[in-house]
Structure formats: structure tokens, C-alpha cells
């Protein structure tokens, strides 16, 4: 793994081109991501430094301070991060991330963290201190370590992600889960999801964003490269042979989605399975404009920061954590 510090020239806070996140301030403290997920769309971006390389914007904390001081109004929260995961096991990434989050919290700005990594111990006291300003989404689609390792070779194991949830609960933060991307025929099966939902029940997790994998030529290239000629790759690609070409609700973004006749009933079935475990599932309209008109992601996250939290009492007995 090659890491290095680079200088951020442009604004620190940016906005996503996805319609559902167009009003959400976002931050990407690194170029590249050590987790190297086989389906990662960010690996196809022109700024991607290449596999095995992570560049950290060392001057971001200083720039963020100055950017916030010039603003008339501060954002309600900032999304970490659209094109990288800040919980990467790289000291410079964790240091810059900690500083950035501290700067935001001290000014009353919330943090929406999406991660498939391990939440490192130094963050827990910070999150506990500012728990009203923290919303965490744990990306997890399976408890099956073999499948997860093939898809997300250097991310946290499923057990570590369950441990993240347990530790967040203990800090007074109820995370939601992100079933994204679901892989048809692999992680969307009732057996896989029921096992996952059962493991989440002791913690009272009650919200899940769901979305199926979509393909672009670059994503397909990385999938083929990383999964080789495994049965898993064949299983995935065959489902997209009769895929639906779609325009995401975003600038110039054309993708191949699973056929609508597969996705629509599958989302309904997954939502129903989730509901059986007390979890409300929602589908991102920007990535599924043929199915729902509701661009729910930014809206759902925004609600979290717009009013005082009314969480169910958390049951953190850790029964399924390890
Ligand atoms: S964790 Fe996210 S940003 Fe990192 S490689 Fe995986 S999908 Fe890409």
C-alpha cells in the first residue's frame, strides 16, 4: 500500500451530482480507498490514483476551518464520504478525519458517516460526546465472510461491522444499515438477509437503505478483474444480460440496472423481510428512477439532524456481536 499527503486546492465541502444528495454538503478527505471493493464506482473516476494507492488531503482541516468561517450559514451536516471510506486503516486518514469531524462538531455541524470499515476506538469518545450530531450508516449486506471477502477484500469483516453497531449503540448512537450494493442471486436471498436481520435485532436497528448493484463499463471491468472466472462473477453477470439501461438522477450518468421486473418485486420482498425484523427499508429514487420517484437518501438523513433524536431504548447486550 502506498500512501502520501497531498494538498487540497479547491473547496473542501462539495455537493454530489446525485439529485437526492444535491443539497447535502459532502467531503472526501482521500483519493483512493484501501478497501478495494470489486464493485466500487469510484475506482472508475479520473481522479482515482490506482489500486494500492491512497492520497490524503493533509491541509483539509485548515481549509475547512477557513471555509466555515466565511460562510453565513453552516450546513446542518456533512456527508463522509461519497468517493472514499474514511475508516481506512491508515494513520494519516484517521488523523485528518478526526480533525475534520472535531471542527464540524465544535461548530454544531452534524456528521453523516457511511462506512464499511472498522470504527477506530479514538472516534468513540468523540461520537459519544456529540451523539446528537452523529448519524452512522454501516454498509453491510451479508454475514458470510467468504462472500464479503471476495467482494470487499480489505474492508471490515461482517463480524467487525456488527461490532461497530454494538459499540455505537453503547455510545448512544443507533446506526442504520446500508444494503448497498445488493448482489442479485448472492446477497439478496431470503436466507442471507434473514440471517443478517436476525443479527441486527438485539441492537434495535430500525432503518435500512437498499439498492442493487448497477453496472457501468468501468465497474464491470473491475468486477471481472477482481472476481476472475469465479462462479460468483458468472452468477452476477448473467443477471444483467437483460438489464435495463437507466439514466440516474444525476449529471450524465448512464448505467445498466437489473431489469425492472426483477428489482421491483425484489425490493418489495426485501422490505417485507426487513419489516419482520422491525426495520424500515427505503429505496434510493435517484438510483431507481423507474421504480420510485422519491429521492429519499438526503431527505432521510436530513430528518435525523433536523429534530431531537427520539430513539427506541437501545438493547445492547451484544448477543450476536461476535
Ligand atoms: S469502501 Fe466504498 S469507497 Fe472504499 S472501495 Fe469500497 S465502495 Fe469504494
Features:
single chain, 322 residues, alpha/beta, TIM Barrel, eight-stranded mixed beta sheet, three-stranded mixed beta sheet, 35% helix, globular, binds iron/sulfur cluster
Sequence-ordered SSE layout with sheet pairings:
Blueprint: E1 2-6, E2 14-15, E3 25-27, E4 30-31, E5 53-57, H1 60-69, E6 77-80, H2 91-106, E7 110-115, H3 123-129, E8 134-139, H4 145-151, H5 158-170, E9 176-182, H6 190-200, E10 207-212, H7 217-227, H8 231-239, E11 244-247, E12 254-257, H9 260-276, E13 280-283, H10 296-306
Parallel strand pairs: 1-5, 3-6, 6-7, 7-8, 8-9, 9-10, 10-13
Antiparallel strand pairs: 2-3, 4-5, 11-12
Helix pairs in contact: 1-2
Bound molecules: iron/sulfur cluster.
Describe this structure in words.
The two termini are 29 Å apart. The longest helix is centred in the C-terminal third of the chain and has 17 residues, at 260-276. This protein is of the alpha/beta class and 322 residues long. It has a single domain, classed as Aldolase class I (TIM Barrel), CATH 3.20.20.70. It is built from 10 helices and 13 strands. It is 35% helix and 18% strand. An 8-stranded mixed β-sheet has the order 2-3-6-7-8-9-10-13, sandwiched between helices. It has helices at 60-69, 91-106, 123-129, 145-151, 158-170, 190-200, 217-227, 231-239, 260-276, 296-306, and strands at 2-6, 14-15, 25-27, 30-31, 53-57, 77-80, 110-115, 134-139, 176-182, 207-212, 244-247, 254-257, 280-283. The structure holds iron/sulfur cluster. Iron/sulfur cluster is lined by residues 33, 35-37, 40, 42, 84-85, 116, 152, 155.
Amino acid at each position: 500500500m502506498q500512501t502520501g499527503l497531498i494538498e487540497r486546492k479547491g473547496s473542501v465541502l462539495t455537493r454530489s451530482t446525485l439529485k437526492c444528495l444535491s443539497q447535502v454538503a459532502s467531503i472526501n478527505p482521500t483519493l483512493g480507498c484501501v478497501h478495494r471493493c470489486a464493485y466500487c464506482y469510484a475506482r472508475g473516476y479520473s481522479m482515482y490514483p490506482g489500486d494500492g494507492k491512497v492520497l490524503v488531503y493533509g491541509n483539509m482541516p485548515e481549509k475547512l476551518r477557513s471555509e466555515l468561517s466565511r460562510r453565513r450559514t453552516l450546513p446542518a451536516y456533512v456527508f463522509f464520504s461519497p468517493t472514499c471510506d474514511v475508516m481506512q486503516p491508515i494513520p494519516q486518514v484517521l488523523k485528518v478525519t478526526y480533525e475534520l469531524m472535531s471542527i464540524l462538531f465544535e461548530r454544531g455541524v452534524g456528521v453523516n458517516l457511511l462506512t464499511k470499515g472498522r470504527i477506530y476506538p479514538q472516534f468513540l469518545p468523540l461520537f459519544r460526546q456529540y451523539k446528537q450530531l452523529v448519524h452512522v450508516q454501516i454498509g453491510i449486506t451479508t454475514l458470510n465472510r467468504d462472500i464479503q471477502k471476495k467482494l470487499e477484500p480489505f474492508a471490515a469483516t461482517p463480524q467487525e461491522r456488527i461490532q461497530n453497531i454494538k459499540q455505537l449503540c453503547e455510545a448512544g448512537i443507533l446506526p442504520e444499515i446500508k444494503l448497498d450494493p445488493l448482489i442479485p442471486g448472492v446477497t439478496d436471498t431470503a436466507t442471507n438477509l434473514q440471517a443478517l436481520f436476525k443479527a441486527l435485532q438485539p441492537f434495535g436497528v430500525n432503518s435500512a437503505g437498499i439498492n442493487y448493484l448497477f453496472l457501468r463499463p468501468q465497474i464491470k471491468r473491475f468486477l471481472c478483474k477482481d472476481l476472475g472466472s469465479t462462479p460468483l462473477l458468472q452468477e452476477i453477470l448473467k443477471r444483467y444480460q437483460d438489464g435495463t439501461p437507466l439514466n440516474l438522477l444525476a449529471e450524465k450518468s448512464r448505467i445498466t440496472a437489473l431489469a425492472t421486473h426483477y428489482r421491483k418485486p425484489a425490493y418489495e420482498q426485501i422490505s417485507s423481510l426487513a419489516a419482520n425484523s422491525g426495520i424500515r427499508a427505503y429505496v434510493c429514487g435517484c438510483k431507481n428512477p423507474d421504480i420510485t420517484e422519491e429521492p429519499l437518501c438526503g431527505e432521510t438523513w436530513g430528518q435525523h439532524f433536523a429534530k431531537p433524536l427520539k430513539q427506541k431504548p437501545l438493547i445492547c447486550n451484544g448477543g450476536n456481536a461476535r
